[in-house]
Design goal:
Elements (H helix, E strand, L loop, with lengths): L1 H17 L52 H24 L4 H26 L6 H28 L3 H10 L1
Helix pairs in contact: 2-3, 3-4
Length: 172
Amino acid sequence: MASTLRSSAAARRIFAAAKPTTSAIRLLPQTRVAAFHASQRNQILPPGPQVVHGTVNDPVPVPTPSASHGSYHWAFERIIALGMIPLTVAPFAAGTANPALDAALGTALVLHSHIGFDACVTDYFPKRQYAKTRALMVWLLRASTITAAVGLFSIQTNDVGLTEAIKRFWRA
């Protein structure tokens, strides 16, 4: 028994001598390494508010169905998009300037652009997270749509017309 005490005491002395002291260890600065990132991630917009209204057990509010925001809206978008094909080709194929076709093409361009940018505003600026920014973007879109419509009307009435203006830009 005395030999085991001597050997365990000796083992403790050996292990204690083998352990380095903390003063002898030089800690190297640690750097974070990410596999596929070359730079720091920068947020364009600050993160949205992290707020839960009610409790987590409340059901998700379902908006009331409306055909003007659903099937009718989708059908109107498709009619405008399909109608732009003959309106774009017909004036150039006929070779004559027709003010009625120019007016229809200008109206379709403005409507198509407004609907497309409105979808972008709806997708990228949710009402519940960015209410003020979304309202600003909607008003900027409305102002831009009116400006574009007035500009196309001015080209149509005071200048050579939309089709002839496009032909001149194309040849320039």
